[in-house]
């Protein structure tokens, strides 16, 4: 038993890998697998996790704590991703079933063939529909339709029906793809986290600078030798930053860096926080893209653009997205040109205002609105990709300089000690 507990660094990752494999295997099946073999695998996985966490009490160390924190973070990410996949599966199934009025039968099968969150949400939706609630209200109340584009899709289908074809016909309007946006943002966060792997080595580097280098300096002083110039410069920097103003500045920089990382993870786990006032401006282009997508679909079905603005005001899923449409309607009623009204309301930028009359002359403003919506998302992703890439490069450069100094200084120290002994 002690041997098993001592190898928790292997047991916990193996148990998590087994859990992921089970989830992936079940994702390829329409029904859940409750066989004896699957029950045995779940028991083995639970015993691995139990033995791994019990080992913390027998062999506790800094490495164990860091490893536990990292595994806890990865477990949270895995749980969030699984929940989002389950919500997406239930949402798209309900959206398709609502078009054929077969949602009660669909929810019955979801509740019978699944467990956990999917089963609870299916039962709650069944209960709400049995009480006479509309399907769109039920999906939004149970947070099955949770994202901006999900709520917009529900409201569009409720107002205009399941069809998304333009009036003349041939092709459906395709605005920004929510899953593509989510995957791009997750790729940016993953790149930032992967580029920040060196953060785990900062405690070791600080230990070398604050503990080992002063010890080496004292040893060289006793032997009558001169410490290498690199370590002398490190000690000079250490003496400088130990002054009170520099200490406060260093602590502030570290706290700000940690706060940025924690904020990014928190916003990824709870994306609804982005709709609050302090964080809303981080994704302003995303919210404007939602407004333009709603206006595009409304303009495709309403007789006039004035009616389309009034319909889009009812379609957007957040109150702060309704204000630009209210200003646009007011400007149009006061006799403003369409492009000017959209610019004054904040729906389009100055550059987009110059392009909008071209599509109006050709009689198809929805094409321009679609391109504006997609360009807003691409511009936001490019902007954050640029800053994230620069941050990763800067962090890697600083870490490479620090490691290079320590490596060269260590070689010089060893050469001096070898020469002294010789």
Automatic annotation (TrEMBL):
Keyword Iron listed: no
Keywords: Membrane, Transmembrane, Transmembrane helix
InterPro entries recorded: GspF/PilC (IPR003004)
Spans through the membrane: 6-24, 60-80, 188-213, 246-270, 386-408
Entry keyword annotation includes Transmembrane helix: yes
Top-level taxon of the source organism: Bacteria
Protein name per the record: Type IV pilin biogenesis protein
Organism of origin: Aureliella helgolandensis
